[in-house]
Design brief:
This protein is of the alpha+beta class. It is built from twelve helices and eight strands. It has a five-stranded antiparallel sheet. The longest helix has 26 residues.
Length: 280
């Protein structure tokens, strides 16, 4: 029987029938699904684009992807990592969130990759570690072990995407609109602590605020403000749980005008005041 934590994140090997069940519910995705093909091959239609996958293929799917299954070989076996939106909202570190958001945009139009043998073995190793960590519920530091295993997985998959960009630039020649959205995320990662308003990022990108909002919403289904708030909230949670910082210091670090403004933001997002969260 799964515990509450395991209902939010899972990493397991699936065969044809179970994989078919998972993919048939793509319209219900509320999080991120990563598939690594271990054996066999399949033909999928992802957002109406025909996609062929075989051993060594890595596929990133989100709620923005509509998946239709056209063919699964009988010997199909995949490693399937599911991370729910609720898990990401509650447990992502700010750094992990940055990788997830950044590469989520880059892999939206091109969600599948063919791994070289070294990268394939490395990702298999990371998924094995994740699966083992999630199942080892008696570990005294269970939560931390799972989070660290997930972070290592994100680092290795992000490293692979970066290597692909260097080695195959033409593969990642994003359309102009996606380049703008990507630039927004890069700017946000650098400035979110001090710049909370979309107007700053629009100015930096030589766009009107309305234009930037429309571009980001079109590519992600969300507003720029929601991403800025997500980064701020993740950072706020981490800082509040670190007894080294007072609420006044955190207010300053995150660029809020005063503790009242920080308190209103945090309570609106979580239902708790910073003090309640820090000393719960």
């Amino acid at each position: 029987m799964k515990n509450q934590f395991q209902s939010l994140i899972s990493c397991e090997k699936l065969r044809k029938k179970n994989l078919q069940n998972v993919l048939s519910k793509s319209f219900l995705f509320d999080g991120r699904l990563t598939l690594l093909i271990l054996v066999g091959k399949c033909w999928l239609r992802i957002n109406n684009v025909a996609t062929e996958l075989q051993k060594n293929s890595l596929l990133f799917l989100s709620s923005m992807h509509k998946v239709e299954t056209e063919f699964l070989s009988d010997d199909m076996e995949v490693y399937c990592l599911w991370v729910s939106s609720k898990f990401m909202e509650e447990h992502d570190s700010t750094r992990m969130m940055y990788f997830r958001v950044k590469y989520g945009v880059e892999t939206f139009s091109l969600p599948n990759f063919d791994l070289d043998p070294t990268s394939f073995n490395r990702i298999v190793y990371r998924m094995n570690e994740l699966a083992r960590s999630i199942e080892e519920t008696t570990h005294f530091y269970y939560f931390d072990v799972v989070i660290n295993a997930l972070y290592a997985f994100f680092l290795d998959t992000s490293n692979f995407v970066e290597q692909q960009k260097i080695n195959e630039n033409e593969l990642f020649s994003l359309p102009h609109q996606e380049q703008i959205v990507q630039s927004f995320f890069e700017l946000m990662a650098k400035h979110y602590r001090k710049e909370h308003f979309v107007s700053f990022y629009a100015t930096q990108l030589n766009l009107t605020m309305r234009h930037l909002i429309l571009l980001v919403r079109n590519k992600t289904g969300r507003t720029p403000t929601s991403f800025i708030n997500e980064m701020l909230l993740s950072d706020a949670r981490s800082l509040l749980l670190n007894s080294q910082f007072s609420i006044a210091e955190i207010t300053f670090l995150l660029g809020f005008s005063d503790q009242s403004a920080f308190g209103k933001f945090f309570k609106r997002q979580t239902g708790f005041s910073p003090k309640q969260f820090k000393f719960v």
